[in-house]
Amino acid sequence: SQELEQSPQSLIVQEGKNLTINCTSSKTLYGLYWYKQKYGEGLIFLMMLQKGGEEKSHEKITAKLDEKKQQSSLHITASQPSHAGIYLCGADSSGAGSYQLTFGKGTKLSVIP
Amino acid sequence: GAGVSQSPSNKVTEKGKDVELRCDPISGHTALYWYRQRLGQGLEFLIYFQGNSAPDKSGLPSDRFSAERTGESVSTLTIQRTQQEDSAVYLCASSLWAGISGEAFFGQGTRLTVV
């Protein structure tokens, strides 16, 4: 089965600093999804990447997909306290349009004002 | 409602008791998913519904787990004879159809604690 490894497991940054979270898959990535989880708010869909080299941005968050490395990175520019939370990557387990996602264990981000 | 709603938000139960977890998906979403997140672990896929049918139940951890969906709306996840290892946050999600599970909307989850 596909496994997703996220790094780092946790991250503490000063407000205004940039940071990167990585997600590496043990198998071919057909689709990679990034979510943010805040306690009591469930998972919030951030963005989806499907093609190698694809890069998407949402406000100050940018994600890239490197198909060859089977890896995606999430980059936050000029972090703010509102960025704090747990970031999860999820991937299609069997192909595009799969009903089943495999998730990483998450990266806990804390932003110090 | 505007989003996926789950109830209860928290549930503490004694080992051996049965529990029911409820999920109200976004109106019009034909696909509904159940995931489980145990402490320190990633999300585990349990089961999904397309309409009222669950084509794949292989993700359910044991035969103590069952789920149903009626009226292409509400879904109930039932755990019989709960065990301590069942303690987890159970997340429900819905999407327009099953092929776009990655863009599903998630509920806030039900935190189940088995004591």
Walkthrough of the structure:
The complex is a heterodimer of chains A (113) and B (115). Chain A is mainly beta and 113 residues long. In chain A, 0% of the residues lie in helices and 57% in strands. In chain A, the strands form two sheets. In chain A, strands 2, 4, 5, 9, 10 and 11 form a six-stranded mixed β-sheet that branches. In chain A, strands 1-3-8-7-6 form a five-stranded antiparallel β-sheet, with no helix packed on it. In chain A, a hairpin with an 8-residue loop joins strand 9 and strand 10. The termini of chain A are far apart. The mean pLDDT of chain A is 87. Chain B is an all-beta fold and 115 residues long. Chain B contains no helices and ten strands. In chain B, the strands form two sheets. In chain B, strands 2, 4, 5, 8, 9 and 10 form a six-stranded mixed β-sheet that branches. The termini of chain B are far apart. In chain B, 38% of the residues are buried. At the A-B interface, strand 5, strand 9 and strand 10 of A face strand 4, strand 5 and strand 9 of B.
**Euclidean distance between termini CA atoms of chain A:** 40 Å
Q: How many distinct helices of chain B?
A: 0
Tell me the fraction of residues in β-strands of chain A, as a range: over 45%
Instruction: Calculate Rg of chain B over CA atoms.
Output: 13 Å
Number of helical elements of chain A: 0
Low-confidence stretches of chain A: none
Based on Cα principal axes, name the global outline of chain A: globular
The radius of gyration of chain A is 13 Å
Q: Could you tell me the mean pLDDT of chain B?
A: 90
Shape of chain B: globular
N-to-C SSE string of chain A, H for helix and E for strand: EEEEEEEEEEE
* Percentage of residues in helical conformation of chain A: under 10%
Biggest β-sheet description of chain B: 6 strands, mixed
How far apart are the first and last residues' alpha carbons of chain B, in Å? 33 Å
Low-confidence stretches of chain B: none
